[in-house]
Amino acid sequence: MYAKCGSLEDACQVFKKSSQRDVVSWNAIIVGHALHGHVDDSLKLFNQMQQEGMNPDHVTFVGLLSACDNAGRVKEGWQYFNSMCHEFHLIPHVEHYACMVNLLGRAGNLDEAYDLIKDMSFEPNATLLGILLGACRRHHNVELGEQVARVLFELEPENVGNYVLMSNMYARAGRWADVAWVRNMMKDKELKKMPGCSWIVVKSRAHVFNVGDSSHPQMEHIITMLESLAGKIKQAGYVPDTKFVLHDVEEEEKEHVLCGHSERLAIAFGLINTCPATPIRIIKNLRVCGDCHTATKLISKIVDREIIIRDTNRFHHVSNGLCSCHDYW
Questions:
Q1: 52: exposed, middle or buried (C-beta count within 10 Å: 0-12, 13-18, 19+)?
Q2: What is d(CA 59, CA 61) in angstroms, rounded to the nearest whole number?
Q3: What is the arithmetic mean of pLDDT over 297-307?
Q4: Which residue in 105, 291, 318, 319 has the fewest CB atoms around it within 10 Å?
Q5: Is the alpha carbon torsion for 328, 243, 142, 93 positive or negative?
Q6: How far is CA 6 from CA 311, 317, 321, in A?
Q7: How confident is the model at residue 47 (pLDDT cuts 50, 70, 90)?
Q8: What is the secondary structure of 95-147 as a DSSP string?
Q9: Helix, strand, coil shares of the chain as percentages rounded to 5?
Q10: Residue-wise pLDDT tens digits, 171-181
């Protein structure tokens, strides 16, 4: 519970004080470290678990493979995947294949990820293919992405996320006619993209921000804070990465769109409404975009605050210009 809430130190304290550690508690602490990007600690805990005579189960290997995935450790990921089968005689489930496909895909080994899916003893589900499609978007492999998308559109025709990934892939390639084609399909099916949303809790009250939001009662102060931060991070070397704005608009408008991303609104609100030197904790419903990640690192250094963001992939502990993910997420 502590690890999932962003408090890994508290989770470690509870684990250390536990007099009877079963496989569930070992799994929880291994997965917790993986979630926060403490890969080496996850792997050391696995070794310690074995030394204390505890046998790993399927959940243990989800944690280990997730740890390798979060650090891009492809070789070690394969080692744990193979040892799961041959040394511990555990049959991989779809969750383990999902970790491996994500690990290989994020590392750019798209053909290897696709081969792993084709070699499985069961038919791939939409989750596995969705992970591969996301990797295709990340590495701009439109050809493979189109193959995977065709299958996904048949498997789950109402899943808007697949259409968004394909539309984004076409947008990054400057194929605006294909973007229009995908968006027309979404319109025909009455599918709407889920907007980026971030929330922050201050004084026991949750404040929610959507991308481009202007409804919050403190929005005037938030905009002033963002404008001040924008000037300071540019002086520190920030250059807006407008490739993360997937719209056919002018560069100046793209910069304006980036400043309105939900996590930036939440950060500005947190700086206004929390005490100096206290961490700012934010949850986001989507993956943090690369430009916001860069901006957040610079903001953390300028304001001397730790900023903790939980996105769909992991926790980002950002402090003094550095992130716990080491810019790999």
A1: exposed
A2: 5
A3: 96
A4: 319
A5: positive
A6: 11, 9, 19
A7: very high
A8: HHHHHHHHHHHHTT-HHHHHHHHHTSSS---HHHHHHHHHHHHHTT-HHHHHH
A9: 60, 10, 35
A10: 989 999 999 99
- pLDDT tens for 76-131 read 999 999 999 999 999 999 999 999 999 999 999 999 999 999 999 999 999 999 99
Helical axes 290-303 vs 251-259, angle rounded to 10°: 60
Task: Extract the tokens encoding 28.
Answer: 């929880």
Element housing 34 (H / E): helix 23-35
Q: In what order do the strands lie in the sheet with 322-323?
A: 205-210, 197-202, 280-284, 307-310, 315-319, 322-323
Burial class (CB in 10 A: 0-12, 13-18, 19+), 263: buried
Q: How many residues does the chain have?
A: 329
pTM recorded for the entire structure: 0.81
What tokens appear for 224 in the block? 């002033």
Q: Could you tell me if 170 and 248 are in contact, meaning their C-beta atoms sit under 8 angstroms apart? A: no
The C-alpha torsion from 253 through 258 and 264 to 266, rounded to 10°, is 70
